[in-house]
Each structure stands twice: as C-alpha cells, then as structure tokens.
Amino acid sequence: MNNNEQEKLQRLLKKYLTGELSPEEEAYVAEWYDNLPDQLPASQAPLPALESQKRENWEAINTKLQQVSQPQLTELEINLKRFTIGRHQTRWLGVAASILLLIGIALYPGRLWREAPVALLEKQNNLKKVERISFSDGSIVWLEPGSRIQYPAKFTGASRDVFLNGKAFFSVARDKQHPFRVYGGAVEVKVLGTSFGVNFKKTEQVAEVLVRTGKVAVTSTDKSVTDYLPFIKSAKKTVRLQLNEKVSFNAAHHTALKQKINKEYWEKQLPEAPLIFTDNSLAEVIRTLEDQHRVSIKLENSRLKNCSLTAYFHGQPLPVKLDMICKSIGATYHAEEDKYLILGEGCKE
C-alpha cells in the first residue's frame, strides 16, 4: 500500500465514524478489514516496548468502546447492516477499533513510539574532545563532541539496547545470546561483537555506519503507519556489512548506498599525538592505548595492574606498541580482531 492509498484509507475511516461513506466507500473499507491478517509474521514482530505500547492503546480503545451507551450501539449496528461480506456480525466493532487506532496514530505519533521502559542513563558530550563510556557488558563507546547517548546502567533482557543521536565509535563485547543494538533517528544497527562507527543526524534523517571488524546488520527504522498496521507492506531496508564496508541511509529519500572502505581509513581517523609514559601503571597505559586506537585491551591476570611502564610512542602501529610493552614486563598478548588480551604473571605490589 503506497502513501496515496494510506491517505485515502485514513480519510475514509474518519468518514466512517461520522456515517458519511458512500456504498462504494463502505465496500472499500470492508474489503480492507477482511484482508487484515490475524497475526503479525514473526519476521516482522515489533520491539517489546512497541508491543507493550500497542497493548496499552488497545486497552484504551476497548475502554472507550465499553463506555458507548446501548442505544448508540443499536443505532450504529442498524446503520452497518450492509457490512456482511464474510465476517461475523460484530465486524463493526473491529473496524471501529481499527479506526480509533489509526486516528490515534495520526494525532499522537510521538506518544505511540516509546523507548525501552527501563531506566536509562544519558550522556551528552559538551566537551571539545571525544569522551569514553564503558557499558556493563564490557563494551566501549567513544562519543564525539555534540553527541548524545542513552543506555541502561546494566543490560538486561534479550538484547543490549542503546540510543544515539550524533557520532560515535563502538567496540562491542561478544555475546551471541544478547545482540547489541544501536538505535538512531533513521536506522537500527545490530551486532553480536564487533567494532564500528556510526553517524546519526536525527534532524536530517540521514545515517552512516562504517564497519572496522566483524559483521553488522543495518535496518531503516521509518516510524510510519507501516509500523502499526501490519497489513501494509513495510518499506524498510536491511543492509549487511562486513569489515571495511559502509552504508549511508537517507530516510527522507528512502535510499541506501553501500560502499567499500580503504583499510588505511581507520588509521587516518586516529589521533597522532605522541604518548609519553613515566612510571605509569600498566592500567593507565592500557586505557590510553584503548582510547587512541579505539580497541578493547584486557589483562588476564590482575597482578599485571601492578606493573609500571616508562615509554615514548609516536606513530607506531598498535601491535608494535603492545610488543614493546609485553617485552618490558615479561608478558605476551593475544589478538582477535579489535580485542586484545595481555597474558603474564604480572608484577609484585
């Protein structure tokens, strides 16, 4: 169903409430209602938060219907005797509920779309430099100046959901049982464990997603009538990305452009300032390297935190820096994509 047909249906349903439909228009509405699916396909199932909101909407609709007096119901039922195209005599009740839902969507779209009902922390980066935020699952986000992110203090439930407006880079801890989702104004990004950059410009309804490691699924999230009326075919797009690929979404024009990224691109995005350490703890050194290279570096042994380091780095690739650090403290490291693990006995306190 295209936009013109959606507008026509909304107009007819409003006329339906006032009894102004012609016989031809009544037949159109009846055919629409007869074609409603009994159940939304699993592949198009809405988010739990949206499903909960729909249940609330239906309860409100049902309450209003129960408040209608019996004489009014009798009169309306008489006027709708012509609606006998194949469903039971209470079809008018379902049509009336559908009308109320559609009009509610048209009048109060913001109230029908709510974010997850869990308490969310919010961080607005008002500085002139990138800010780092660590999540409860070990994932890290580097938030660019002027950007805002909302996230729970602790991830619970089937997925790990955050809400972003602006630009950020994510290093996501792997968890196959709980996908990580980033919601923006135009798209949803879904990953299991990877690293990627996103740039969501909510006011312009454009979004860009760039993948450095792993795989990412990017889906448009046009919050239109198609999200609430499943019988209307959805125009959502899903683009799957691998390392060194990007996609640019434009919600206003319903376009998605997928492109390759030069592997040198990521190094050019990193700050080039030299790093100077003078008897700093290994924990401080690791955090600085994580921020500079946008990666996750873990210590296998807690005693490694007792080690200290004096060093000067400028321009070396991360593997070279880690080799130099490990040799100085008698350790080794293991790398898997953008995740690094330093192994060793550590140092005495």
UniProtKB/TrEMBL annotation:
Alphabetized InterPro entries for the sequence: FecR, FecR_C, Ferrdict_sens_TM
Alphabetized UniProt keyword annotations: Membrane, Transmembrane, Transmembrane helix
Keyword Calcium attached: no
Pfam families registered for this protein in UniProt: FecR, FecR_C
Domain Protein FecR C-terminal intervals: 275-342
Ranges that cross the membrane: 92-110
Any GO molecular function: sigma factor antagonist activity
Domain FecR protein per the UniProt entry, residue ranges: 132-216
Record protein name field: FecR protein domain-containing protein
